[in-house]
Specification:
Its cofactor is FAD. Keywords: FAD, Flavoprotein, Oxidoreductase. The protein is an alpha/beta fold. It has helices at 10-17, 42-48, 111-114, 121-134, 152-172, 194-206, 302-320, 361-377; strands at residues 2-6, 26-31, 35-37, 53-55, 65-69, 72-76, 81-84, 89-91, 94-97, 101-103, 145-148, 179-183, 210-213, 216-220, 224-228, 234-238, 241-244, 248-250, 254-255, 267-268, 281-283, 288-289, 334-338, 344-350, 354-359. The strands form eight sheets. A five-stranded parallel beta sheet has the order 5-2-1-9-21, with helices on one face. β12 (179-183), α6 and β13 (210-213) form a beta-alpha-beta unit. α1 runs parallel beside α7, α2 runs parallel beside α4 (121-134) and α2 (42-48) packs parallel to α5 (152-172). The radius of gyration is 22 Å and the shape is globular. The two termini are 25 Å apart. It binds flavin-adenine dinucleotide.
Length: 379
C-alpha cells in the first residue's frame, strides 16, 4: 500500500509518528520544510525570536516513513496524482492531506499587498526584524503597529509585541510604539466566555494596547490603514507595520470532480476523515471539514489537527493489517490564550462536560503543558 502524507504540520506529523514499518506498507511524507513548525508559538518567535521549529528527520526514525522535502503544486484526486513544484509526479494508493490553511484577506483593498501574516516562520522573522529596526537609532518614520483581527492569533501577538516593545523602549531610551488591535466584531476572543474575555481585555489595556473593537478595516496602504468606526466614520491610522490575523481559509490545492467543500474552502469528510467521494483520501487538520458529535464543524486548531492525525495514522496501520478503521470522535480538552510572558487565560474540560476557568500563571502552565503533550506525542 503506497501511502503519501502531504504536510508535516500538527496533522501530518501526527500521522507519520503513529506509523510503524509493516510488510507491503510504503509511506512517504512530503513537506516543503526540513522542519516542523510549532505554529501555535509563532507569536513568540515574532516578538522574541524564540526557536519554534524541530528538524523532521529524527522524529521519523523507527516509523518506516521516508521524508521528501518538496513543495506540492497540485493534487488530482481523479487521477490519483500529486504534482510537485519541481515537475515530478507522485502516485498513491492512500493519500493523507494535511497542508493547513492560508490567510484570508477577504479582498480588503490593499491588505494582501501591504500586510504581513503570521502563518510561517518567515512571517515571524519579518515582524521580529521590524520591531528591532523600529528601535534602532537611525529608524525614521512611523514605529506603530496595527494588527487586524482580535481572535487567538491577534491577541497572543499584540500582548507579546507589547512586552518586547516596552523592553526595547526602556533599553534604548526611545518613546514606546503604539500597538492597535483592530476588530470588526463587537468583542475580542469570541471563543471565550465573558469573564475570561474581560480578564484578557483588562490585560491588553494594562499593556497600553489600543483595542478597537467594532472597527472594520476597510483599506490598507504601505503605511496606513483606514478603519470604519462604530459611528460609520472613516479614520486613518498611520502604521509602520500592518499585520493581518483576521481570517484563514483552507489551502486550495485539491482538485476532484466529486470533491465537496464547505465554509472556508474546507473539504467535507466522513466519520473516518476521508474526503467525501474519495475513500482512499484522508483530509485532516485545517483543510478538512470534520464534524463533531452535534454535527458542527470541528474548530481549526492544533489540538484537533493532532487528534485527527493520530487517529489517521492508526487507521492507516489498521488498513495495512486488513483490520477495521475507527471513527473520529473529537474532544476539546480546553482552550488557552497566552497574554504575554507568564500570563494566560482559558479553560480546561472537567468530567460531566464541566469547564474550569483558569487565569494567570496556572493558565500559562496549562498552555505550556498542552505544548509539551504535543512534543511528547511526536517523539
Ligand atoms: C500564532 C498562532 C497561534 C495559534 N495558537 C493556537 C493554540 O493556542 N491552540 C491551538 O489549538 N491552535 C492554535 N493555532 C492554530 C493552529 O496552529 C492550526 O490550527 C494548526 O497549525 C493546523 O494544523 P495543520 O496540520 O492542519 O496545518 P499546519 O500546522 O499549518 O501544517 C501544514 C504543513 O504543510 C506544509 N505545507 C503547506 N503547503 C505545502 C506545500 N505546497 N507543499 C509542501 N508542504 C506544504 C507546511 O509547511 C506545514 O508544515 C494558532 C495559529 C497561529 C498562527
Amino acid at each position: 500500500m503506497k501511502t503519501l502524507i502531504l504536510g508535516a504540520g500538527y496533522a501530518g506529523l501526527a500521522v507519520a509518528t503513529k506509523m510503524k514499518p509493516h510488510p507491503g506498507l510504503e509511506a512517504l511524507l512530503v513537506e516543503q520544510n526540513a522542519f516542523h513548525t510549532f505554529e501555535t508559538r509563532l507569536h513568540e518567535a515574532a516578538a522574541h525570536n524564540t526557536r519554534v521549529t524541530l528538524p523532521l528527520a529524527p522524529l521519523l526514525r523507527g516509523t518506516g516513513v521516508e521524508l521528501e522535502q518538496a513543495s506540492v503544486e497540485g493534487v488530482n484526486l481523479d487521477e490519483r496524482e500529486v504534482t510537485l513544484k519541481d515537475g515530478r509526479v507522485l502516485t498513491y494508493d492512500t493519500l493523507v492531506v494535511g497542508l493547513g490553511s492560508v490567510t484570508n484577506f477577504y479582498r480588503i483593498p490593499g491588505l494582501a499587498e501591504n500586510a504581513s501574516e503570521l502563518k510561517q516562520l518567515s512571517d515571524a522573522d519579518e515582524i521580529f526584524n521590524f520591531v528591532n529596526r523600529a528601535y534602532s537609532g537611525e529608524f525614521k518614520g512611523v514605529r506603530d503597529i496595527v494588527v487586524g483581527g482580535a481572535g487567538l492569533t491577534g491577541v497572543e501577538l499584540v500582548t507579546e509585541l507589547a512586552q518586547r516593545a516596552e523592553l526595547l523602549s526602556k533599553a534604548r531610551g526611545l518613546p514606546p510604539m503604539n500597538i492597535y488591535l483592530v476588530e470588526a466584531g463587537p468583542k475580542i476572543l469570541p471563543v471565550l466566555d465573558d469573564a475570561l474575555r474581560g480578564k484578557a481585555q483588562r490585560t491588553l489595556e494594562d499593556y497600553g494596547i489600543h483595542v478597537m473593537t467594532g472597527h472594520r478595516l476597510m483599506q490598507a496602504t504601505a503605511d496606513t490603514v483606514t478603519v470604519q468606526t462604530p459611528d460609520e466614520e472613516q479614520k486613518i491610522i498611520p502604521a509602520g507595520k500592518i499585520i493581518w490575523t483576521g481570517g484563514i481559509q483552507a489551502r486550495d490545492i485539491l482538485k476532484g470532480e466529486r470533491l465537496e467543500k464547505g465554509p472556508g474552502g474546507r473539504v467535507a469528510v466522513d466519520d473516518r476523515l476521508r474526503a467525501k467521494g474519495y475513500p482512499e483520501v484522508f483530509v485532516i487538520g485545517d483543510m478538512g471539514l470534520a464534524l463533531n458529535q452535534e454535527g458542527k464543524p470541528v474548530p481549526t486548531t492544533a489540538q484537533h489537527a493532532g487528534q485527527q492525525g493520530r487517529l489517521t495514522g492508526k487507521n492507516i496501520m489498521r488498513l495495512a493489517k486488513g483490520e477495521d478503521t475507527e471513527p473520529y470522535e473529537p474532544t476539546t480538552l480546553g482552550e488557552f490564550v497566552s497574554l504575554g510572558g507568564l500570563m494566560a487565560v482559558g479553560w480546561m474540560k472537567l468530567p460531566w462536560n464541566q469547564k474550569l476557568a483558569i487565569t494567570g500563571g496556572i493558565a500559562h502552565v496549562m498552555k505550556r503543558a498542552s505544548e509539551w503533550r504535543w512534543r511528547a506525542s511526536i517523539d
